């Protein structure tokens, strides 16, 4: 395996190993991707970690610990913090045993590119449920925000305000110091016309003129 002395070969080895390892984390590959990825990375580390290299087995353990942090983040934390730290440890683990800076840089780039490319497996294989907690939290937060906004709009029904722009028949109103986009009840209204909110459907606010005169008339 002396060919692994070439930095470009090391680049492709790390890229493929990372591609399959992260592919196993993202999709249901029945362990096949994990076996391939572990085999490739074991070859990489066994070549670079030699008695005379001055680098011990701890760099491989650092790499493994980084993967463990990514899995833990995806399963339990789901905020990306531990996953980021895990990728950083993996980069350190594969870069340290390399013979020179260029080789180490290419190995680090290969890991990042392999991580990104593994997402393509999702288009072909069924995905796992990693980071679903984060997705669910975002969904619930969005629904809560929408429901809160919807309720605040419904509270406008029956309140009075002024048109701030001309209605043709859509414009802007001011109610209790806040501005809203609204639509008039089949009426064209001039600015500064006194209005009342007659109905709200979602975020669609319908208003009508209170009297026949504008405030500036």
SSE string, helix = H, strand = E? HHHHHHEEEEE
Give the CA-based shape. Answer: rod-shaped
The structural domain count equals 2
**Largest beta-sheet details:** 5 strands, mixed, barrel
Task: Give the number of helices.
Answer: 6
Q: Tally of extended strands?
A: 5
Briefly note the structural class of the backbone: alpha+beta
Major sheet strand order: 1-2-3-5-4
CA distance, first residue to last residue = 91 Å
Keywords: Membrane, Transmembrane, Transmembrane helix
Subcellular location: Membrane
Transmembrane segments: 6-27, 32-49, 55-72, 79-96, 102-125
Protein name: NfeD-like C-terminal domain-containing protein
Name some characteristics of this structure.
single chain, about 220 residues, alpha+beta, OB fold (Dihydrolipoamide Acetyltransferase, E2P), 5-stranded mixed beta barrel, rod-shaped
List the helices and strands and how they pair.
Elements: H1 7-26, H2 32-48, H3 58-77, H4 81-95, H5 101-117, H6 132-154, E1 160-163, E2 170-175, E3 178-184, E4 193-201, E5 204-214
Parallel strand pairs: 3-5
Antiparallel strand pairs: 1-2, 1-4, 2-3, 4-5
Helix pairs in contact: 1-2, 1-5, 3-4, 4-5
């Amino acid at each position: 395996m002396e060919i692994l002395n070439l930095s470009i070969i090391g680049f492709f080895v790390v890229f493929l190993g990372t591609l399959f390892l992260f592919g196993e984390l993202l999709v249901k590959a029945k362990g096949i991707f994990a076996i391939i990825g572990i085999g490739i990375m074991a070859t990489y580390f066994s070549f670079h970690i030699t008695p005379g290299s001055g680098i011990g087995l701890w760099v491989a353990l650092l790499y493994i610990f980084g993967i463990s942090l990514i899995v833990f983040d995806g399963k339990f934390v789901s905020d990306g913090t531990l996953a980021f730290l895990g990728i950083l440890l993996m980069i350190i683990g594969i870069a340290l045993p390399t013979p020179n800076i260029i080789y180490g840089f290419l190995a680090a780039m290969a890991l990042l590119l392999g991580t990104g490319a593994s997402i393509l497996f999702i288009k072909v294989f069924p995905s796992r449920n990693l980071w679903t907690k984060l997705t669910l939290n975002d969904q619930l937060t969005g629904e809560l925000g929408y429901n809160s906004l919807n309720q605040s709009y419904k509270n406008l029904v029956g309140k009075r305000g002024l048109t701030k722009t001309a209605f043709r028949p859509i414009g802007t109103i001011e109610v209790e110091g806040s501005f809203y986009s609204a639509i008039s009840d089949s009426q064209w209204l001039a600015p500064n016309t006194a209005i009342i909110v007659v109905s709200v459907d979602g975020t669609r606010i319908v208003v009508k003129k209170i009297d026949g005169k504008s405030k500036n008339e």
